Amino acid sequence: MDTWLHKTGHERGYVMDLPTLWRFAGGWYTGRMEPGYTRRDPAAAGAYFAEVGLRGSFWGLPD
To answer: What is the crossing angle of helices 18-28 and 42-51, to 10°?
Structure first.
């Protein structure tokens, strides 16, 4: 990551580790293909993000 950032001149943004990604994706997509699925409202989404270990302004959460 650091080498790519240096070569491209981009600033480091949010970087998620694989265990967090796995926790996030495992529940985030549950039921999406089912009839009648209703997406989470912003408050419920924020609570889910915090529950699976996401943090930072990208997710609307404290660092």
So the answer is: 140
